[in-house]
Amino acid sequence: MRAERPILRRAAATLLALALLPMGLPPGLPMAQAQTRARPSATEPLPLPPPPAPPASLAPQPAQPGIVPREAPRDAPRAGPPLQRRIGLAELGPAAGLPFDQRGVTLTVPLPRNQPGLAGRLALAIDLAAPFGGRHAVELRAEGRLLESRAFSDAPGPLAIEMPLPEDLLAQPDGALSIELRLVGDPDPASASLRPDSHLTLLLPDPAELSVAALFRLLPQATQVLLRPGPISPAEATAALQIGLALAATGREVSIASAPPGRALPGPGGTRIWASGAVLVGLGAEAAAVRMLDGVPVLTLGGPSPERMARLLDSPLREAALMGAVSGGTEGAAASSATATLPFAALSGSTAPQEAARAEWTLSFSTRDLPPGTRLEALEVALRAAPDPGGARAVGTVLLNNEILGAATLSAEGSARLVLPVQASALAAENTLSVVVNRAAASGPAQLLPSSLLRLAPAGPPRDFLDLPSAFGAGVEVLVDAPGRVLVAEGLNPLLWVMRAVVPAAAPLRVTLAEPGTPAAPSGPFVAATIEPPADSDPLLRFDAGRILLSNREGRPVLELGGLHRLIAAQLLTAGGHPGLWLRHVGPVPLLPAAAPRLGQGDIALLDGQGVALAWSSGPAPALRIAYPEAPRPEGMSLAGATAWLAALRPWRSWIIGVAWVAGFLLVVYAFLRPRRDPPPAPPAGISAP
Q1: d(Cα 398, Cα 61) in Å, to the nearest integer?
Q2: Are 152 and 134 in contact (CB under 8 A)?
Q3: pLDDT tens-digit profile of 608-646?
Q4: Helices 234-249 and 493-502, interaxial angle, to 10°?
Q5: Which of 27, 141, 466, 683 is the most exposed place for a label (fewest CB within 10 A)?
Q6: Confidence grade of residue 395 (pLDDT, cut at 50, 70, 90)
Q7: 481 has which bridge partners?
């Protein structure tokens, strides 16, 4: 039995090996080889290494642009969730909230013109300030159509309104959606406020369906103008500045860089939010086109002359860019003539009729919005209101930058027309015009008539920063220092920051590279960002070893500063008979704020990271004459006559004062030399003098 046990064990092992052999044996492998692999010997050699990869080609590969990711084909299906564009309240103007009451308030949202496939959703949060809650409601209208009427609850917290917008409201022919909010309910004093986190979310269609003009209007609030890394050409610099001014005129925050475009941010529910826009300059054969880069639509300006297509995006010919791609061509001269008037309809704001007892219209305009070579001379305001049944007349008041220009009482029929001259001192770079009609009661609608307008006059030579937009409207030559004719994209940001304040968005630009240390000679109105002042100019602000010396027009120094750094000095110059602006940085370039500097009255300014640090006017001070009506004057002489008599003696004022002082001194000396002596008193009666 003991001899049979090894035989049984071997038979069992053989049967087990035969049973497991088909499971792990590769097909076509001989049995002997399988057994050899199962029990390798100690002298079996190592397997050979895998064959080497084929050698890479040694031919030079073409350099890929550093800012151009792989472009998706236009006919490819949309990858991932749809792209959303969120328009917040800060983008529409009031960043800290928008108050409104029973009179209502209107928001204007810019949209592409007649863009099909655009969907939107409105999300509003509204706070109520009232003595009793739950007695008021909010009416929401869009283009005059009632969309929602929702009441406030007694519970604390804001009123939330979330609703989709009909597609026909988003396809407006004028490219703007008007949203009106009105508080209704008890007549007790109450007001509401739209919270800053309120927004409109647009669901973008397939980017292949977007035109150039539609993408331009849909670009996010933060947009970058992107150029290729390394030196750029004057044509690319011109296009970057031109498109930067056009985007800044629409309220966007613009910067110029050579970095890759931003990607879409992840949103709630797996959505993608388009938060950073990009415009690529100098890429592609097409003059203007829409491309997809990393799943985000990007506007490209290419061709041999990208600066010409950049002008079309903010000019009366912008509607020609409604096609998917615009081919380049020759740029003709702009056939525009200076108009004598500018209607109120061309200003920013609403002139819709109002029915409240106090009707107010607020319009805004910039000096850059005026036609080239013109200035504001007067305002013509036409008003009409329904007559009051009690016979009380309404009063209309016109204010410019919180300064009352004039007021008038409406006629018995309820109409009035005011013609108000505007002084240069009342203007600013950004102007706010308010027209108010006060009535005893709300007896009907009041209207600011469409015939109201700005009356313009020819502008003279610029004397301060406010006069530069009229001189720059017909064209500007931009002079930039470029050592060895090398200019990079990031070097244009300080120039763009200042140009946003004084150069109209539609003004033609031409960039000229200058060699540092050599005075540049402009051939027309100019903006020079150079170390040396332009040729044939006499700047009043001079620089010497880190110190700044400011002189008046007579050459006398009035201010000397030292130890300054991280500043940009801006001053008005005339070089070769051409007006312009000379920019020179003192030390490193400061950190540029988002808002453009407020260059208003004055012709010399120092700019830092906060904006305007110091502004100065080198012109003569205005002659002020003060006349007091209650001052005594000779009989039969009018106030005008007395003023003219005093004005005639004004040149002899110093002589008159000197003669008066000398005469007074002689009287004092005479009084000391000849003192007064009283005679002795007379003796009493009956007593004779000795």
Answers
A1: 68
A2: yes
A3: 888 888 888 877 655 545 554 555 555 555 545 555 666
A4: 50
A5: 27
A6: very high
A7: 514
